[in-house]
């Protein structure tokens, strides 16, 4: 996808079948941000959830001394007021206030409130915008919602999106840790949905670079919406929860004690598998498993049923069914809290497993633009920091990941979007967080849209693994499927993206 900027240098990244336009980040580019924002003197960030907090802080720090003000808008009575004040935003200097007042005063209004609140209150926000103010989004939920209503964004306003490929905690932590590593952070995509004044791309790139994105690639708001919503229901969250629940039961039935079953399922995915993919690429997991035949059989058993389910999710996102299910669930839950999902017996063993780790997670190196993401060594023990890579778990997980990758390919997504939404966001943001807390904690503490999606589709993935994939492990591997896996062009695309990632220590 093309991308042109009058301020930043646009490069070509070689990917399978051609090239994609990207822009490298870096703190050396911060002096260019005011000119790239084209007249934006005040940025209003609405919301103080994980993304709102991270983006407001990163923008403020990156624009310090530029004369551009970053202000936070919160709803009356918000429980986040004290934390926003503690982080240096306050009413006295106009950097903290009522969300509608902040929206009315900003030249760029970044909408990072919860999806349900956005659906309920977007008209109020649109009504107070300054003429020509830019509307900023960090995913395409509102586009999908407006389409369901037969509406559109207000005319005359630029509509842009910057979508970090990681959770808010990662966006902030990697930005802070990257103070001595130029450009360190989480990759992001940009989309320019409406561009009446012709400056949408520059503004979006400036916003992305200010967040600390090592590299930025272009997409459309519609494509981002589809890949984001599908991904969090599949390999980023829902499928992971369904998989670890299924594997824990599988290993327990096979005779493993509870702690070992937890280690072979949850721990191996969030720890050594995630680190191996991040440092060495997806095929390296097969080598690191120590049993390529068992890996191949598990991959063969899981790939097709998992991909079929990803395709079903994609269809329901594309036709609006998934969005309608989220809205209906929000209405049901309006007056009562969402129940916790971490009540199954396996999660009681999380503290014991964490205590058994031989290497604290925060000391492990992530990323590193070594360009070796096509494959490589990395034994299971070396990659694990305590637990090795179980071949069954590895095969089923990688089969699911590649099922999502291949489905996104046939749906027409760009390679940068595919590898970021299916691989990099998982191994460099979400899985590290799950490793530090646990998968159930992540499901219970992410955005409501993601929580609802994981609750709806996680059990479907669990059933697919328990009823279709795992019973087929005694069958021979599909040699053609394994050949296609090893030769998949996604590995080349991931290697190209890995070249652009600075090396930083992820602590969570």
From TrEMBL:
Q: Name one GO molecular function term.
A: isomerase activity
Q: Does the keyword Transmembrane helix apply?
A: no
Q: Give a single Pfam family match.
A: KARI_N
Keyword Oxidoreductase annotated? yes
**Its domain of life?**
Bacteria
In this chain, Mg(2+) 1 is annotated as bound at 228, 232
Pathway annotation from the record: Amino-acid biosynthesis; L-valine biosynthesis; L-valine from pyruvate: step 2/4; Amino-acid biosynthesis; L-isoleucine biosynthesis; L-isoleucine from 2-oxobutanoate: step 2/4
Q: Which UniProt keywords apply?
A: Amino-acid biosynthesis, Branched-chain amino acid biosynthesis, Isomerase, Magnesium, Metal-binding, Oxidoreductase
Q: Which SUPFAM superfamilies match?
A: 6-phosphogluconate dehydrogenase C-terminal domain-like, NAD(P)-binding Rossmann-fold domains
Domain KARI N-terminal Rossmann: residue ranges: 23-219
The record's similarity note reads:
Belongs to the ketol-acid reductoisomerase family.
Q: What is this protein called?
A: Acetohydroxy-acid isomeroreductase
């Amino acid at each position: 996808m093309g991308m042109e900027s009058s301020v930043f240098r646009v490069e070509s990244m070689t990917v399978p079948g051609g090239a994609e336009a990207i822009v490298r980040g870096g703190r050396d580019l911060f002096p260019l941000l005011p000119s790239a924002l084209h007249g934006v003197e005040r940025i209003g960030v609405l919301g103080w959830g994980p993304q709102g907090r991270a983006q407001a802080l990163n923008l403020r720090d990156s624009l310090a001394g530029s004369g551009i003000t970053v202000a936070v808008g919160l709803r009356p009575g918000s429980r986040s007021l004290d934390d926003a004040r503690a982080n240096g935003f306050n009413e006295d200097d106009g950097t903290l206030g009522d969300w509608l007042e902040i929206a009315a005063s900003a030249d760029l209004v970044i909408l990072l409130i919860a999806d349900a609140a956005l659906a309920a209150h977007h008209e109020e926000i649109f009504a107070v915008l300054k003429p020509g103010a830019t509307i900023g989004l960090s995913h395409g939920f509102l586009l999908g919602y407006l389409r369901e209503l037969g509406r559109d964004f207000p005319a005359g306003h630029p509509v842009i999106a910057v979508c970090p490929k990681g959770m808010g905690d990662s966006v902030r932590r990697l930005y802070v840790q990257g103070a001595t590593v130029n450009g360190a952070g989480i990759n992001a995509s940009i989309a320019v949905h409406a561009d009446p004044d012709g400056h949408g791309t520059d503004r979006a790139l400036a916003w992305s670079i200010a967040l600390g994105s090592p590299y930025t690639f272009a997409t459309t708001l519609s494509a981002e919406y589809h890949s984001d919503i599908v991904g969090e229901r599949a390999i980023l969250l829902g499928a992971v929860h369904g998989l670890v629940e299924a594997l824990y039961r599988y290993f327990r039935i096979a005779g493993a004690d509870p702690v070992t079953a937890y280690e072979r399922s949850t721990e191996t995915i969030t720890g050594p598998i995630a680190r191996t993919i991040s440092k060495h690429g997806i095929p390296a997991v097969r080598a690191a498993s120590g049993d390529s035949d068992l890996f191949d059989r598990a991959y063969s058993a899981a790939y097709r049923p998992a991909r079929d389910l990803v395709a079903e999710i994609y269809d329901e996102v594309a036709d609006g069914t998934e969005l309608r299910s989220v809205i209906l669930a929000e209405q049901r839950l309006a007056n009562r809290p969402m129940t916790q999902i971490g009540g199954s017996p396996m999660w009681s063993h999380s503290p014991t497993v964490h205590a058994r780790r031989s290497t604290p997670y925060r000391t492990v190196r992530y990323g590193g633009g070594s360009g070796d993401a096509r494959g490589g060594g990395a034994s299971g023990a070396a990659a694990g920091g305590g637990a090795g890579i179980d071949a069954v778990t590895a095969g089923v997980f990688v089969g699911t990941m590649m099922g999502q990758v291949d489905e996104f390919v046939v749906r027409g997504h760009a390679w940068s979007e595919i590898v970021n939404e299916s691989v990099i966001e998982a191994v460099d943001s979400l899985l590290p967080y799950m490793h530090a807390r646990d998968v159930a904690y992540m499901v219970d503490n992410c955005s409501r849209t993601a929580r609802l999606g994981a609750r709806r589709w996680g059990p479907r993935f669990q059933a697919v693994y328990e009823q279709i994939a795992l019973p087929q492990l005694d069958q021979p591997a599909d040699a053609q499927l394994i050949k296609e896996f090893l030769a998949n062009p996604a590995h080349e695309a991931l290697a190209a993206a890995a070249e652009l990632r600075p090396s930083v220590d992820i602590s969570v």
